[in-house]
Design a protein that fits this description.
This protein is of the alpha+beta class. Helix content is 51%, strand content 17%. The strands form 3 sheets. Strands 1, 2, 3, 4, 5, 6, 7, 8, 9, 10 and 11 form an 11-stranded mixed sheet that branches. It has a 6-stranded mixed beta barrel with strand order 14-15-20-17-19-18. Strands 13-21-12-22 form a 4-stranded antiparallel sheet. β14 and β15 form a beta hairpin. α3 crosses α7. The protein is globular. Keywords: Cell membrane, Membrane, Transmembrane, Transmembrane helix.
């Protein structure tokens, strides 16, 4: 029996070679896209899985109800109190620096070591890297100790057996207490060296409002993190509010609503990469993964739709075969199994081809996402094979049920075609296919328009020809270093102007605090700067005046604010200058002397934040945080100027350190990379969808038109022109296309509007993509179907009418 089924299957494959090829192609393309996106998702979910403590470690985030925003910082007193009073908290680890680079000196050499991290002493309880040398006991306890990775140890000492060795930086000697091997598995936490900033931690131990630290909590076995989150508000946030609030009658609830945070969020360690609300280690983006995965599944669905349509359209060729088999005793279940086998063979062939194609495309896919993924995870094979089984069942069972339902007596008489069930099934499934195709066209055009809008939007500043250089060498008085360099570097040929600013577009650096006015408070970014910085960046002054170095008050208690700041307080422009504010970075009150136009410092996905601009000398700790110098270079010799600046910097300013620089406009442009990649992927998926859909439409129209060749011959004999015949054959498909697009419009509108909601700066929902989708699909449908329809008009009248 099986042998006969296989013979019949291959006869039908050969007889309907075009349909077979289209099914193979469509399923192969769909499964390849599915596997590549699945690889990407699986890779993103695999971060931190190596850690044996992962089930007990949770990443801490805060929620501010008033702002409806999430943060990823905590103060030291909060972390300490959580451990002391919340029963489920076993331990915590703090960190306030990652990706650090330091020039280190040993008795062998001097090396600039990158990718360091500052952490409290319990780090290795949370991240038990493989120990190579030394001990983890007290490895980060006290001052003057450092732990190194095997790579850093080899860089500094030429060996991994470096425990006990001495290394010097920042004018201090440090003893290497441990050498560890970083995990080969995916991890966002891979420090090449770790130091404990003991002095800084001691100075911040009693400062409840210093949210400069990230934190992981280790919970005891069996502890429910949801209960810990509840207790965190009562035992930590409310406790801090009672300590900090002034005696003005403000309730604890009012204090938390005003200053926040109002709630905590604990995310499991191995879910940070994709599912954290906010993270020190990169912005989580589970939504994009899900969109891509859904789109890849839709392509597989389209392929399955092709299969169903083509199988049901071929019913005329199988009807008598089914009638004969039923007449000689074949059961309905036997026929269903036979048709499922035929489908499974096509699916398995597509699966094997897709595995080969995935391997072929993987290097390019890795390059696109900057990854090193391999086809070595059984999950990929399991889920993709499961998809093959599902496709087999869905695309095989529907035609099998349909074909096996033919009545033997009717099919042998040739009357099966009078039933309208098959026509409705094919038309319904073809409509679904075109709905999906229409959505892809509409979605692709809207994505393109949104990305173009962001790239063309006036950012409110000009970063062109502005070179920013980060300070790498530690300096106890960095503001004096800047002031000296400002004088010296302005003499370099090609340098037009020099300045400093804390808020630099694209840099992702952030420093903020509450700003109070009477009984109202908002969160605002700190914009410490040199006097000329805003003019240097070509930011526009809306009202008031700039800071003036000749006015002593402008270095004491005068500030500028942006439009977002004014709007947040609900003031009119004229009211701003009558009010005094108290920023969280100081205890004294400040006067606002100017309002500047809003300009973007982050991705256009986020709204412009309130910013307070002030001279860096106003407060002592802001002077200590001067971290860059910015140069505006002349346009006539940018490359030459860059070489001269680099030579001066490496020779006279920070010898032995890397020249850490970027052009501001190019750095900000990188914030678009993610969306440009989404745009590219959507375009590729769009092309795949249209290709699969149109090939299916061509094959289906070919089969259906072949069934009408006798009607065509009769009409032609009666004098119908080629144009009338072509329109008659294509009309049905055009109506289906029109119906599909009209159905897809509200669906596409809703889904794309939800996508656009993620952007603070977005286009209004355009009408053109919906019109283009309609016209494109109508034209493509007409072109694809009319090719076969035109050939049908050239039929041999004798061939089809000789028996009539």
């Amino acid at each position: 029996m099986l042998n006969n089924w296989l013979k019949i299957a291959f006869i039908n494959y050969k007889k309907n070679w075009l349909s077979t090829a289209i099914n193979l192609f469509g399923l192969t393309v769909g499964l390849t896209g599915f596997m590549l996106i699945l690889l990407h998702w699986n890779d993103e979910e695999s971060f931190e899985k190596w850690n044996p403590e992962k089930d007990h470690i949770y990443y801490f985030q805060t929620y501010h109800k008033k702002e409806n925003s999430y943060g990823n910082n905590i103060s030291i007193p909060m972390a300490k109190r959580a451990k002391e009073v919340i029963p489920g908290v076993q331990d915590y680890v703090l960190f306030n620096g990652s990706g650090i680079g330091i020039k280190m000196t040993t008795k062998y050499k001097t090396v600039y070591q990158r990718e360091g991290m500052t952490s409290s002493e319990s780090f290795f309880n949370f991240f038990p890297f493989k120990l190579v040398s030394g001990t983890y006991k007290n490895a980060l306890k006290g001052e003057g100790v450092i732990a190194l990775s095997t790579i850093a140890a080899k860089n500094l000492f030429g060996t991994t057996n470096a425990a006990g060795e001495s290394v010097k930086f920042d004018g201090k000697n440090y003893v290497v207490t441990a050498v560890y091997e970083l995990p080969k598995e995916n991890s966002q936490i891979k420090p090449e060296f770790i130091i404990n900033p003991v002095e800084q931690i001691k100075s911040d131990e009693k400062n409840w409002g210093n949210f400069n630290y990230g934190c992981f909590f280790m919970l005891k076995e069996g502890t429910d993190p949801a209960i810990v989150q509840q207790k965190f508000r009562k035992e930590v946030f409310e406790y801090r509010a009672k300590l900090d609030k002034d005696p003005s009658g403000m309730t604890t609830e009012q204090y938390l609503d005003l200053y926040g945070p109002t709630a905590s969020v604990l995310t499991p360690l191995d879910e940070i990469k994709l599912h954290a609300k906010a993270s020190w280690f990169g912005t989580p983006d589970f939504k994009t993964i899900m969109i891509l995965f859904t789109l890849s599944v839709l392509i597989v669905v389209l392929s399955a739709i092709n299969f169903i349509n083509l199988k049901t359209a071929q019913a005329s060729q199988r009807a008598k075969e089914i009638g004969v088999r039923k007449a000689i005793g074949s059961t309905r279940s036997n026929l269903i199994v036979q048709f499922l086998l035929e489908t499974f063979m096509i699916c398995i062939a597509s699966y094997l081809l897709s595995l080969a194609l995935t391997e072929l495309l993987l290097p390019s896919f890795n390059k696109f996402f900057d990854k090193e993924m391999k086809m070595d995870d059984w999950h990929i094979y399991f889920y993709s094979f499961t998809m093959v089984i599902l496709v087999t069942l869905i695309s095989g069972l529907i035609p099998a049920m349909y074909l096996s339902n033919f009545k033997a007596i009717e099919t042998l008489k040739g009357n099966f075609a009078r039933s309208k069930h098959g026509i409705w099934l094919r038309n319904g499934i073809l409509t679904l296919q075109l709905i999906i195709s229409s959505f892809f066209i509409i979605g692709g055009l809207i994505v393109n328009q949104q990305v173009k809008y962001m790239m063309d939007k006036d950012l409110g500043y000009s970063g062109k020809q502005i070179l920013m250089i980060n300070f790498s060498d530690f300096n106890p008085k960095p503001w004096l270093k800047y002031e000296r360099l400002k004088t010296e570097m302005s003499k370099i040929p090609g340098v037009a102007e020099v300045s400093y600013g804390e808020v630099v577009p694209g840099s992702n650096r952030s420093s903020s605090s509450n700003v109070d006015f009477m009984d109202k408070s908002i969160q605002a970014q700190h914009g410490s700067m040199d006097y000329n910085y805003l003019q240097f960046m070509n930011v526009k002054l809306k009202k008031g005046r700039w800071l003036d170095p000749n006015l002593s008050s402008d270095t004491i208690n005068n500030v500028l604010v942006n439009e977002a700041f004014v709007k947040k307080f609900g003031w009119k422009d004229d009211e701003v200058f009558k009010n005094q504010i108290r920023p969280g970075f100081d205890n004294k009150k400040y006067n606002i002397v100017g309002i500047v136009k809003d300009f973007n410092i982050r991705s256009l996905r986020t709204a412009i934040e309130p910013i307070v601009f002030f001279h860096y000398r106003e407060t002592e700790w802001k002077r200590l945080n001067v971290y860059n110098i910015q140069l505006k270079v002349k346009s006539d010799d940018i490359d030459g100027t860059l070489k001269r600046v680099k030579k001066y910097w490496s020779g006279s300013v920070e010898p032995g350190y890397p020249f850490d620089y970027f052009f501001v406009d190019q750095k900000f442009a990188k914030t678009f990379e993610k969306y440009k990649k989404q745009q590219t992927l959507f375009t590729i998926l769009n092309a795949m969808v249209l290709m699969v859909a149109l090939l299916g439409l061509f094959a289906l129209s070919s089969l259906m038109i072949e069934q009408k060749l006798k009607d065509v011959a009769i009409k032609k004999t009666l004098g119908a022109s080629d144009g009338i015949l072509i329109m008659g054959l294509t009309r049905q498909f055009l109506w289906i296309t029109l119906t599909a697009v009209l159905i897809s419009i509200p669906i596409s509108y809703y889904l794309m509007n939800e996508w656009l909601k993620d952007f603070a700066y977005r286009i209004d929902m355009p009408v053109l993509p919906f019109i283009i989708s309609l016209l494109t699909l109508l034209v493509l449908t007409f072109v694809v179907v009319s090719i076969k329809a035109y050939k049908a008009t050239k039929v041999s009248l004798v061939k089809y009418l000789k028996y009539e």
